[in-house]
What we know:
globular; 71% helix
Amino acid sequence: MGATSKAAGAVGKQLAPKMAHIAPELTSSFVRQALHRAIAGVGPLPPAARAADAQLKEQKGDVDRGIHEVIENHVRYAGAQGFVTNLGGVVTMAVTIPANITGLALIQCRMVAGIAHLRGYDLDDPRVRNAILTCMLGEDTVTALIRERKLPAPPMALATAPLHDPDLDVVISAEVAAELVARVTGKKVATTFARKVPIAGGFIGLGVDAFATWQVGRYATRELLPRARR
């Protein structure tokens, strides 16, 4: 599945610039809105911190086990929404790509915010919010952006920076929006040939979204080191 995810991402990066015609609403503001809703709660999903605290309670205060459960739950959520939005034929692409990106953004934001909360970070801090979004880019992309000097530092350093840089908000949001579009677009192309048997596309979508979410969760766990919880 890792090879499938990387191949989908590579194809998606080539096609992402054309996505403005398919999903013009996918902008930097969309990313910030997804993060806000993930932290504050939306629909049947309670706020990220409250959900993470519930997992911590279930694990009798063991933070590491609580984080493990947060990741596992959101991997399942990602798989479920990936399955639903990848059923059907290629003709549904213009509808399902925005839905898939929205679902994936919300789920991954909520997961990383939960991890950050359990590790002692203030989710209202704009520096922490930038770190959460940066985690969603994944380690390889973050390393490349730092090398290209588009990002000043990895997530942990952003979360604990002496000052908040508002200009960085725009840069990070734009990169996350582009990354989400690339991933989902690439996945759609990678599953096109499986659409002759419609259910197959759904299972491929489930696996790719779930694996990508697991990778983001593991990266966030390595990056957001423990701080004293309030």
